[in-house]
Amino acid sequence: MKSPPAISDERQILMRKAASVARYVELAEVSLGALNAELLAPMADVVSFAPLTPRIGSKSSFVFEENEQRILVRISVKFSLIGPSKKSSRSPLLVVSCDFDLSYLFRVEGAPTGEIRDELFAAFADINGTYNAWPYVRELVQNTVVRMGLPPFVLPVYKPATFQLSTPVTVGGPTDTGK
Question: How would you write the pLDDT of the chain (179 residues) with one tens digit per residue?
Protein backbone atom coordinates (compact mmCIF):
# COMPACT_ATOMS: atom_id res chain seq x y z
CA MET A 1 0.00 0.00 0.00
CA LYS A 2 1.35 3.42 -0.98
CA SER A 3 1.90 6.11 1.60
CA PRO A 4 -0.41 9.07 1.21
CA PRO A 5 1.21 12.07 -0.47
CA ALA A 6 2.55 14.77 1.81
CA ILE A 7 0.28 17.73 2.42
CA SER A 8 1.88 21.01 1.37
CA ASP A 9 2.29 23.75 3.97
CA GLU A 10 0.04 26.01 1.90
CA ARG A 11 -2.71 23.38 1.82
CA GLN A 12 -2.41 22.81 5.58
CA ILE A 13 -2.85 26.53 6.22
CA LEU A 14 -5.87 26.64 3.90
CA MET A 15 -7.41 23.66 5.69
CA ARG A 16 -6.91 25.29 9.11
CA LYS A 17 -8.60 28.47 7.90
CA ALA A 18 -11.52 26.44 6.50
CA ALA A 19 -11.84 24.51 9.75
CA SER A 20 -12.08 27.75 11.73
CA VAL A 21 -15.28 28.56 9.81
CA ALA A 22 -16.66 25.02 9.43
CA ARG A 23 -17.47 24.61 13.10
CA TYR A 24 -19.93 27.53 12.90
CA VAL A 25 -21.90 26.57 9.78
CA GLU A 26 -24.75 24.30 8.82
CA LEU A 27 -25.33 23.26 5.21
CA ALA A 28 -28.87 24.40 4.39
CA GLU A 29 -29.24 23.84 0.65
CA VAL A 30 -27.49 22.42 -2.43
CA SER A 31 -28.67 23.08 -5.97
CA LEU A 32 -27.40 22.63 -9.49
CA GLY A 33 -26.67 26.05 -11.00
CA ALA A 34 -25.42 25.02 -14.45
CA LEU A 35 -24.60 21.95 -16.52
CA ASN A 36 -22.92 21.52 -19.89
CA ALA A 37 -21.83 18.22 -21.43
CA GLU A 38 -20.14 17.76 -24.79
CA LEU A 39 -18.89 14.70 -26.63
CA LEU A 40 -16.11 16.20 -28.75
CA ALA A 41 -15.19 13.05 -30.69
CA PRO A 42 -17.16 10.14 -32.14
CA MET A 43 -18.26 7.76 -29.40
CA ALA A 44 -16.33 4.88 -30.98
CA ASP A 45 -13.13 6.93 -30.74
CA VAL A 46 -13.72 7.79 -27.09
CA VAL A 47 -14.25 4.13 -26.18
CA SER A 48 -11.30 2.91 -28.29
CA PHE A 49 -8.80 5.47 -26.93
CA ALA A 50 -7.95 3.45 -23.84
CA PRO A 51 -6.51 4.33 -21.48
CA LEU A 52 -7.97 7.80 -21.14
CA THR A 53 -6.65 10.40 -18.73
CA PRO A 54 -9.27 12.19 -16.65
CA ARG A 55 -8.68 15.85 -15.90
CA ILE A 56 -10.65 17.79 -13.40
CA GLY A 57 -10.50 21.37 -12.34
CA SER A 58 -12.58 23.25 -9.84
CA LYS A 59 -12.91 26.74 -8.53
CA SER A 60 -14.93 28.24 -5.77
CA SER A 61 -16.45 31.59 -4.98
CA PHE A 62 -18.60 32.88 -2.15
CA VAL A 63 -20.90 35.71 -1.12
CA PHE A 64 -21.67 36.46 2.52
CA GLU A 65 -25.18 37.71 3.15
CA GLU A 66 -24.62 39.45 6.44
CA ASN A 67 -28.30 40.26 7.14
CA GLU A 68 -29.31 36.63 6.58
CA GLN A 69 -26.14 35.23 8.16
CA ARG A 70 -25.63 32.98 5.11
CA ILE A 71 -22.54 32.02 3.17
CA LEU A 72 -23.45 31.29 -0.45
CA VAL A 73 -20.81 29.17 -2.16
CA ARG A 74 -20.54 28.33 -5.86
CA ILE A 75 -18.40 25.36 -6.87
CA SER A 76 -17.58 25.18 -10.58
CA VAL A 77 -16.17 21.89 -11.86
CA LYS A 78 -14.88 20.93 -15.29
CA PHE A 79 -14.30 17.23 -15.98
CA SER A 80 -12.73 16.00 -19.20
CA LEU A 81 -11.32 12.81 -20.65
CA ILE A 82 -8.13 13.13 -22.69
CA GLY A 83 -7.01 10.48 -25.18
CA PRO A 84 -3.48 9.05 -25.31
CA SER A 85 -0.96 11.43 -26.89
CA LYS A 86 -0.08 9.14 -29.79
CA LYS A 87 -3.74 8.80 -30.90
CA SER A 88 -4.98 12.33 -30.33
CA SER A 89 -3.73 15.85 -30.00
CA ARG A 90 -4.32 15.72 -26.23
CA SER A 91 -7.57 17.56 -26.81
CA PRO A 92 -10.52 16.58 -24.64
CA LEU A 93 -12.73 13.86 -26.07
CA LEU A 94 -15.47 14.52 -23.51
CA VAL A 95 -16.18 17.53 -21.29
CA VAL A 96 -18.73 17.84 -18.47
CA SER A 97 -18.91 21.20 -16.69
CA CYS A 98 -21.20 22.03 -13.80
CA ASP A 99 -21.81 24.60 -11.10
CA PHE A 100 -23.29 23.73 -7.72
CA ASP A 101 -24.63 26.38 -5.36
CA LEU A 102 -24.43 25.69 -1.64
CA SER A 103 -26.07 27.76 1.07
CA TYR A 104 -24.69 27.61 4.61
CA LEU A 105 -26.19 29.11 7.76
CA PHE A 106 -23.47 30.96 9.67
CA ARG A 107 -24.33 31.50 13.31
CA VAL A 108 -21.65 33.10 15.39
CA GLU A 109 -21.38 36.30 17.38
CA GLY A 110 -18.20 38.34 17.09
CA ALA A 111 -17.09 36.86 13.78
CA PRO A 112 -14.14 38.47 12.03
CA THR A 113 -14.88 41.19 9.50
CA GLY A 114 -13.38 42.61 6.33
CA GLU A 115 -10.32 41.05 4.74
CA ILE A 116 -9.79 38.47 7.48
CA ARG A 117 -13.38 37.22 7.13
CA ASP A 118 -13.05 37.11 3.34
CA GLU A 119 -9.81 35.12 3.59
CA LEU A 120 -11.39 32.60 5.98
CA PHE A 121 -14.60 32.29 3.91
CA ALA A 122 -12.60 31.84 0.69
CA ALA A 123 -10.70 28.95 2.30
CA PHE A 124 -13.99 27.50 3.58
CA ALA A 125 -15.56 27.75 0.11
CA ASP A 126 -12.58 26.04 -1.49
CA ILE A 127 -12.17 23.20 1.00
CA ASN A 128 -15.59 22.59 2.54
CA GLY A 129 -17.69 23.78 -0.39
CA THR A 130 -15.90 21.39 -2.74
CA TYR A 131 -16.08 18.59 -0.16
CA ASN A 132 -19.83 19.08 0.35
CA ALA A 133 -20.57 19.40 -3.39
CA TRP A 134 -18.40 16.44 -4.40
CA PRO A 135 -21.01 13.66 -3.97
CA TYR A 136 -23.35 15.64 -6.23
CA VAL A 137 -20.56 16.20 -8.77
CA ARG A 138 -19.70 12.49 -8.79
CA GLU A 139 -23.32 11.49 -9.35
CA LEU A 140 -23.82 14.10 -12.06
CA VAL A 141 -20.67 13.14 -14.00
CA GLN A 142 -21.41 9.41 -13.77
CA ASN A 143 -25.04 9.79 -14.89
CA THR A 144 -24.20 12.29 -17.62
CA VAL A 145 -21.48 10.06 -19.09
CA VAL A 146 -23.90 7.10 -19.17
CA ARG A 147 -26.71 9.23 -20.65
CA MET A 148 -24.29 10.21 -23.42
CA GLY A 149 -24.08 6.52 -24.31
CA LEU A 150 -20.64 5.86 -22.85
CA PRO A 151 -19.69 3.21 -20.32
CA PRO A 152 -19.85 4.43 -16.71
CA PHE A 153 -17.02 6.35 -15.13
CA VAL A 154 -16.88 6.80 -11.37
CA LEU A 155 -14.98 9.74 -9.94
CA PRO A 156 -12.91 8.96 -6.84
CA VAL A 157 -13.72 10.17 -3.36
CA TYR A 158 -12.64 13.75 -2.72
CA LYS A 159 -9.87 14.00 -0.13
CA PRO A 160 -9.31 17.70 0.61
CA ALA A 161 -5.69 17.33 1.66
CA THR A 162 -4.35 15.48 -1.36
CA PHE A 163 -6.94 15.33 -4.13
CA GLN A 164 -5.65 14.91 -7.68
CA LEU A 165 -7.29 13.28 -10.69
CA SER A 166 -4.78 12.50 -13.40
CA THR A 167 -4.52 8.72 -13.34
CA PRO A 168 -5.15 7.09 -16.75
CA VAL A 169 -8.34 5.04 -16.78
CA THR A 170 -10.22 2.83 -19.18
CA VAL A 171 -13.76 4.04 -19.83
CA GLY A 172 -16.01 1.27 -18.58
CA GLY A 173 -13.09 -0.28 -16.71
CA PRO A 174 -11.62 0.06 -13.25
CA THR A 175 -11.25 3.54 -11.84
CA ASP A 176 -8.81 5.08 -9.42
CA THR A 177 -10.67 5.02 -6.12
CA GLY A 178 -7.98 6.91 -4.27
CA LYS A 179 -7.06 3.88 -2.11
Answer: 666 667 788 889 999 999 999 999 999 999 999 999 999 988 887 777 777 788 888 899 999 998 999 999 999 999 998 887 655 457 888 999 999 999 999 988 777 788 999 999 999 999 999 999 999 999 999 999 999 988 877 888 888 776 654 444 445 544 444 43
Cβ atoms < 10 Å from Cβ of 76 = 16
Q: CA angle at residue 8 from 130 to 81, to 5 degrees?
A: 50
For residue 46, what is the enclosing H or E element?
Answer: helix 43-48
Question: What SS3 class is residue 47?
Answer: helix
Q: State how far the Cα of 26 lies from the Cα of 104, in Å rounded to an integer.
A: 5
Query: Could you tell me the domains of the chain?
Result: 24-147 (3.10.420.10)
The whole-angstrom separation of Cα 55 and Cα 155 is 11
Q: Residue 98 CB: number of other CB atoms within 10 A?
A: 22
